[in-house]
Amino acid sequence: MLNNNDICANDQLIQAEVQSWDYVLSYVLPSCIKCAIELGIPDVLHKNANPIMSLSDLVANLPNLNPSKASFIPILMRILVHSGLFNYHQQQGDGYSLTGVGRLLLEDDPFSKRSFFLFAEHPVVLNTTVSVSNWLRDDLPTAFETAHGKSHWDYCAEEPEFSGFFDNAMTSDSRLISNLLISDCCKGVFEGLTSLVDVGGGTGTVAMAIANAFPSLKSIVLDLPHVIGDRKGTGNLEFIAGSMFDKIPHANAILLKWILHNWSDQDCVKLLKKCKESIPSKEKGGKVIIIEIVMEDNNSNGSNLFKHNT
Ligand SMILES: C[S@@+](CC[C@H](N)C(=O)[O-])C[C@H]1O[C@@H](n2cnc3c(N)ncnc32)[C@H](O)[C@@H]1O
Ligand SMILES: COc1cc(O)c2c(=O)c(O)c(-c3ccc(O)c(O)c3)oc2c1
């Protein structure tokens, strides 16, 4: 048993205590970001900070803030300043402005990540994340099924409100990535292709950018019927509703952006075999282009575990 003097001298314990508060309170920041977005703070700052906006002007311009809650805004702003989303300018007469990452919370920024923040804090997602330990104890394939009784995709087909949040989140990421894909650093991948299927291509943001950048390349978006809806292509862009596990249209190339990570290894093998059936051989120019977030394997322990199991 440690006495008080031992605790005082135990640097490791003090450090662990500090670190544990970081973990315990880590739920605060995402909920503050959601709150700021829903109150319209980033957009109000963007329109009115010239170059900074005072707290009283900010509070007066928030469209749906109940006046009785105005005194809570400084603490919200303090958390968001501390986290690097807003700047606080003390020398220039007390005021706020947006930082570079804060700009990504704007509704109309071309690379806005707003929808991803709102999706990540959606109650359906939060209920999934708190179900992980139950999922590890039951025999269902995903934590989503443990929490909601059906797969994420079946749920989306039945719940247009949640499906909209998900599709908007994916679209927000695709805007930045599609600009990158057609830029000098990546466009070589598409040169010489005459057709491409964006499998699970969602609302078509990436396929549309590729179709515009390469007029002689036909871009096809394949996704589930509730995502394609009544989207119609134009010119060299086509939308097809269907399941990638049934049939993938024939093309020179297939794009899989953020698809494989959603599926088990067995399903990925099934899907990649379907892809192979739909493209020419490698020698004849066929290719599958995969875009995923890759974790670096610097201290190998975690990912080696996975390698042993698969
Ligand atoms: C993580 S999202 C990625 C969307 C898009 N590729 C992107 O990066 O923004 C996965 C997509 O796969 C689609 N999807 C899921 N199951 C599918 C299936 N069986 N056939 C076709 N698309 C499917 C979903 O509707 C969703 O649009
Ligand atoms: C880079 O961040 C990503 C990328 C993705 O492709 C997905 C994704 O596909 C996904 O289903 C989900 C997801 C997470 C929790 C849920 O409860 C849920 O219904 C869906 O999150 C993602 C996050």
UniProtKB/TrEMBL annotation:
S-adenosyl-L-methionine listed as a keyword: yes
Alphabetical list of InterPro entries matching this protein: COMT-like, COMT_C, COMT_dimerisation, SAM-dependent_MTases_sf, WH-like_DNA-bd_sf, WH_DNA-bd_sf
O-methyltransferase C-terminal domain: residues covered: 133-300
Residues spanning the membrane: none
Pfam family, one: Methyltransf_2
Residue ranges of domain O-methyltransferase dimerisation in the record: 21-107
Highest taxon in the source lineage: Eukaryota
Keywords, ordered alphabetically: Methyltransferase, S-adenosyl-L-methionine, Transferase
PANTHER family from the UniProt entry: O-METHYLTRANSFERASE
Family per similarity comment: Belongs to the class I-like SAM-binding methyltransferase superfamily. Cation-independent O-methyltransferase family. COMT subfamily.
Name of the protein described by the UniProt record: Uncharacterized protein
